[in-house]
Amino acid sequence: MFPSSSSPIVYGLTLFLPLFLLFIFAPQILPLRYNRQPSLISPQDELDDLRLFNEAVSKATATSRGGSPKTSHLGTINPKPKIAFLFLTNSDLVFAPLWQRFFESPSNDDLFNVYIHVDPSTKISTPEWFIKANFIPAKTTARASPTLISAARRLLANAIIDDPFNLYFALVSQHCIPLHSFKFIYTSLLGNPSSASKAFLTQRSHTSYIEILSEARYLYKRYVARGYGVMLPEVPFEKFRVGSQFFVLAKRHALLVLKDNRLWRKFKLPCLYSDSCFPEEHYFPTLLSMVDPKGSSHYTLMRVNWTDSVNGHPHTYHSPEISPELIHTLRKSSTSSYSYFFARKFSPDCLKPLMEMTKDVVFRD
């Protein structure tokens, strides 16, 4: 029998235990009822995308086995590998004139394609002359939701179906600009165009350029954004990665993305905590890290300034900040010898000063 002096301790523990259990389990119970975000991906959207992805994988497989590649929308087949530029946007492409100048050169005509996914609610006034622009069938997108993953996968699939010689896929946004000439970027990825050949399409050694981070102070918070234990067993915490939303993927990895359904089942789930949920920054790094950890560079070719981010948005450059010195600074990496190819985020008023510097600065490597 306990002495009477222990009774207050027992009573105290009895009162404390329910509070302790509430603290542990409340985040799993209450948010499910009050905070879970609605899903923006309908069953019909899922079915449409699945058909599209299967078609892309099927065509790519037929080509790799020696089948005759389908003629692209250009009407000709060129055996040289190409870079597919994938624009993901929910507003007007204000930097289309800059990209037009980046692409325009008779020698570049057969070395790239452009695909654009525009949110259906957005009105685009992009000039019709935006070079080789191919607007793909698009669906609704929203920030911090899996719809951005779907849109990126949609762009990859359409590019693979359209032209079997698209070998690299560069995902950019309406706020991105190129930091080098097209020739510099193409040569860096694929070598001299004059020596490029059809053999590039069957090589399995091409590297993808995507940021993949296994250590970050917010990593666990993002991992449990859908609820505690929800990502298991497919994605244990030690396999979860974060990284950049924008990337340059080799074709072999683009196909891995389109074939995946196992991880997608987890990443498409609505979040409980919207301030920690950025699926587009988690899905691609996690998938590639798990499936082919040595096949990616683990760094991005997109320069982003996070020093004064606001609500998850990086620093936005404005016209007074544009200068030759800025372009040269944005190209340089502080952690590696490689050069950044692209940069974000730029406001529309930056277009004029950037256009004035294209010949002598931006596209002068």
From TrEMBL:
| Membrane topology, as annotated | Single-pass type II membrane protein
For the keyword Membrane, the answer is yes
- Locate the transmembrane regions by residue number: 6-26
Pfam families per record:
Branch
- Top-level taxon of origin: Eukaryota
Compartment(s) where it occurs, according to its Swiss-Prot or TrEMBL record: Membrane
* Single GO term (MF): glycosyltransferase activity
Q: Which UniProt keywords apply?
A: Glycoprotein, Glycosyltransferase, Membrane, Transferase, Transmembrane, Transmembrane helix
Q: Which GO terms describe its cellular component?
A: membrane
Tell me what this protein is called.
Protein IQ-DOMAIN 1-like
Q: Which organism is it from?
A: Hibiscus syriacus
